[in-house]
Specification:
The complex is a heterodimer of chains A (319) and B (499). With 319 residues, chain A is an all-alpha fold. Chain A has helices at residues 2-38, 44-69, 77-94, 98-122, 127-145, 163-183, 185-195, 197-202, 207-233, 244-254, 268-286, 294-309, and strands at 151-152, 235-236. A two-stranded antiparallel ribbon of chain A has the order 1-2. Chain B has 18 helices and 21 strands. Chain B has helices at 45-52, 75-80, 98-102, 118-131, 148-160, 178-193, 205-211, 234-242, 299-306, 328-333, 343-347, 354-359, 363-366, 374-387, 404-417, 434-449, 461-467, 491-498, and strands spanning 5-15, 20-30, 34-38, 60-65, 68-69, 83-86, 111-112, 115-116, 166-170, 197-201, 214-219, 222-228, 263-272, 279-284, 288-292, 312-319, 336-339, 422-426, 453-457, 470-475, 478-484. Classes of the chains: A mainly alpha (319), B alpha/beta (499). At the A-B interface, helix 1, helix 7 and helix 8 of A face helix 10 and helix 11 of B.
Chain lengths: 319, 499
């Protein structure tokens, strides 16, 4: 018994180490490989490109961490960000105020996130299915409204695509997210729910309210990300936001965040993961890999990392 | 009738994650005999039957069927060895027709050139129902549309239709009406008459004595005694069943009930959906109120209701400040703590650190304008680890790695950390060894001395008698009897009220 528990402790330590090291080593490895093959990864233009692409994913993944930590699932990010951006654009074209556009973008994203929350928390539909439905609904909306023409934003919004604005915003979002997640009851409750919902409830956590707030935080993040993507892209079309959900999930996984949630979720990993996924995609691009192959490679890498870092379900009833 | 051994088990052992379910069990099941298996919940009778019927293998030990080794890999293999089982849980699949349940895995019998002849199958099913005297079930009807009793009868027909040598009936009669029972008894007799063997599991001792030729008593996974028909005696069986060796040195040494005058919780006329009926009592500060009974007597439900996890249909739980309990967050705000009997599933988060587990109820207390500093968390956890002497490498260690007793201490520490004054402990010593039990009892005494109010729900009578100031015995959701602490109280005295 004593030996077994010691062996167990060793195994846990090793697993913990792997889980901690792999995301960092993975990113370094990717940077090294792409730099040595292409020789131009670290040029200013490329770094800016990576930053720009990672920007949206970092912010959305930060919010998503709250949802995934409590055992939720959300694959509607692409659709939700698309519709939020669309609404924001439509309003901005009537009343030319970037701040109003930001408010609309955040409000719509929150509303859609709340829909996710209400259906999965109170009506007890599987979160995955709810967000799948929401994704299709949002895509459908975009397809209908943007089918004939794409909508451009007024010029007043374009100056927001400036690092002097974007960097402080990003830093603020990261700091607030880290504070909420690691240092307040909301983040800690979320992790506890992901670890064991029954135990969390019995220890006095209001499970429903906590989950609702987590979805709200996620919505706010999507809204902020949407606004800056809008200021950069300048327009909304049917393809806006497409693939975001998969990039966010890949980011969480590459960052080493367990998709089933729990106490070991560390929110900063989401930032690491988001940068990694973009470096991977961008890197494959500049080593001139066929565009069509990139998604395939992303799938293979995702599977490999999941296999490597996830706790394998070895415990069963009959051991 | 021959007395030949049909099936024998030799030194069967089986343990689940943390509990020993069976320990060196050797039994002979002879032809022409109805053998009763009896024991409390968790005594291992279902585990034994599950091993025989191939649900899972034994950890060690062997089985012999008709003199040759027998190790079924699945319940279907057991079925083909002419072992028919009616399970304790639902053994039928609700979403398919009755006939399909009856012939599950046997569909090939009706297959012609790869196509199943449905009409033939339905006819065969109808014949089987007629043969076993089952009326009113149409073979093509959906299983879910039938009552629990009818589904149990379908299961019986399935178990019997390939003429089993061994017929296993695991706690089935509670689901059956008088008519259904008669049918079952008839079929049990007919299996015996054609020289088969029946294993019959029931909690009803009178029924067991009526139906069985022999009774085997299991307790904590150990075979306690085998009784022949002429040795049957209800009181003896009850005592063998529940009675544990009273090793009283680690219990309280005082023999009088003591408590403070202040009432901590008042329960009035509590009814719940789960079966509580008109439960009323007062819990005082500095009092250990023991609640005992058989597992399904409603005591666990009472624990959950006291903590606000179960909403009462009628009746109230009132705290000292006259607030009426409404949900478990209300209970926690009023200084209540609860430890579930399913500790690993409900009371702790296995994949979280000791610290993470301990601070959960105290977020509100630790937060300064919403900010919970790690220093405050560490202070709380370290304090509890020290005062409960939890054995661990550090407070950051995963709770999963701890032993059962230390896990339990973490669950306690969570509530001590929140300065709880009222404790509802559901089987606080379940699955812990004697050493940890001693520590738990010392802890209980410490809590009592500090004026905390404790409700201790337990299935163990020695513990109940040894620790409580007051004992309430429950039966069928009601309080059957109440005893004050006294030196004269004995187990056999209390058992009468339980069964």
């Amino acid at each position: 018994m004593e030996d077994r528990s010691k062996a167990l402790a060793r195994r846990y330590k090793a697993q913990e180490l792997i889980r901690n090291l792999i995301p960092v080593l993975g990113l370094l490895l990717l940077l090294l490989v792409f730099q040595s093959i292409s020789g131009k990864l670290f040029r200013m233009g490329n770094i800016k490109s990576i930053m720009n692409q990672a920007y949206t994913i970092i912010i959305v993944a930060l919010g998503g961490t709250f949802v995934y930590a409590h055992g939720g699932m959300d694959i509607s990010y692409g659709g939700v960000i698309g519709v939020s951006m669309l609404c924001s654009t439509l309003v901005a074209n009537q009343i030319d105020s970037p701040y109003l556009a930001l408010a609309v973008c955040v409000a719509v994203a929150c509303g859609l996130s709340l829909m996710n929350a209400v259906f999965s928390i109170y009506l007890k539909v599987s979160p995955l299915i709810v967000s799948l439905c929401l994704m299709y609904m949002c895509r459908g909306m975009l397809n209908v409204v943007c089918s004939s023409d794409k909508f451009s934003v007024p010029d007043s919004m374009l100056p927001f695509d400036d690092w002097a604005v974007k960097i402080p915003v990003l830093v603020a979002v990261i700091l607030i997210a880290v504070f909420l997640f690691e240092k307040t009851a909301i983040g800690k409750s979320s992790k506890a729910i992901g670890g064991n919902t029954v135990a969390a409830r019995q220890a006095g956590i209001n499970v429903e309210r906590t989950r609702l707030i987590c979805y709200l935080i996620s919505g706010i993040c999507i809204g902020i990300a949407g606004f800056f993507q809008l200021s950069r892209a300048g327009s909304v079309s049917t393809s806006t936001g497409q693939g975001l959900e998969m990039n966010v999930i890949t980011a969480l996984v590459l960052g080493g965040i367990s998709l089933s949630g729990g106490a070991r979720v560390r929110i900063l990993r989401a930032v690491l993961g988001a940068v990694t996924v973009i470096v991977l995609r961008f890197g494959l691009n500049i080593i001139r890999l066929d565009e069509n192959l990139i998604e395939g490679v992303q799938g293979v890498v995702l599977l490999f990392i999941v296999w490597l870092t996830y706790e394998k379900n070895r415990t069963n009833l009959y051991n | 009738m021959s007395e030949a051994v049909l099936l024998s088990t030799h030194n069967i052992c089986k343990h689940f994650v943390s509990t020993q379910a069976l320990c060196d069990v050797s039994v002979n099941f002879r032809r022409g005999v109805v053998k009763g298996l009896v024991g409390e919940n968790g005594s291992g009778k279902s585990t034994l039957v599950n091993i025989i019927s191939g649900v899972y293998p034994a950890a060690s030990g062997t089985l012999e069927l008709n003199g040759s080794p027998y190790a079924p890999k699945s319940s279907y293999e057991a079925y083909n060895c002419h072992i028919g089982t009616i399970t304790q849980e639902m053994g039928t699949i609700p979403s398919i027709p009755v006939a399909d349940n009856l012939f599950l895995g046997e569909e090939e019998r009706f297959m012609h050139h790869g196509v199943i002849n449905r009409r033939e199958m339905l006819q065969a099913a109808a014949q089987i129902f007629e043969r076993f005297g089952i009326r009113g079930i149409r073979p093509e009807s959906m299983t879910a549309s039938h009552t629990l009793e009818e589904r149990k009868l379908v299961e019986m027909a399935r178990a019997l239709c390939n003429d089993p040598d061994l017929f296993i009936v695991d706690e089935t009669t509670t689901a059956l009406s008088l008519h259904g029972r008669d049918l079952l008894y008839q079929n049990i007799r007919s299996v015996r008459e054609r020289n088969g063997c029946v294993i019959f599991i029931s909690h009803d001792i009178d029924e067991l004595m009526e139906v069985c030729d022999e009774i085997t008593i299991l307790r904590d996974g150990v075979l306690i005694r085998e009784l022949r028909k002429d040795e049957f005696d209800g009181d003896l069986i009850r005592e063998l069943l529940v009675g544990r060796q009273l090793s009283d040195h680690y219990y309280r040494t005082d023999h009088g009930p003591t408590h403070l005058n202040e009432v901590a919780v008042r329960v009035q006329g509590l009814y719940t959906m789960g079966g509580l009926k008109n439960v009323s009592f007062k819990l005082h500060k500095g009092e250990i109120l023991g609640i005992g009974g058989l597992t399904d007597c409603g005591m666990h439900e009472l624990g959950a209701a006291l903590f606000g996890l179960v909403k009462p249909v009628q009746g109230t739980v009132t705290f000292a400040d006259q607030t009426v309990l409404d949900g478990n967050q209300c209970a926690i705000r009023h200084g209540m703590g609860y430890i579930s009997k399913n500790r690993d599933q409900e009371s702790i988060i296995l994949e979280a650190s000791i610290m993470d587990n301990m601070v959960i109820p105290s977020y509100r207390k630790l937060a300064r304008h919403g900010y919970i500093s790690q220093r405050a968390e560490k202070a709380l956890a370290n304090e509890q680890v020290r005062s409960l002497s939890i054995k661990c490498r550090s407070i950051k260690q995963n709770v999963r790695e701890l032993s059962g007793g230390n896990k339990q201490k973490v669950a306690f520490g969570k509530w001590f950390g929140n300065e709880s004054e009222i404790f509802v402990l559901d089987c606080p010593t379940r699955g812990v060894d004697v050493g940890v039990k001693t520590a738990m009892y010392q802890l209980l005494m410490r809590m009592k001395a500090e004026g905390k109010a404790v409700v201790m729900i337990t299935e163990e009578l020695p513990e109940l008698i040894g620790m409580s100031d007051r004992i309430m015995i429950m039966k069928n959701g009601q309080i059957q009897m109440e005893y004050a602490r006294s030196a004269e109280l004995s187990e056999s005295y209390i058992i009468k009220d339980m069964i």
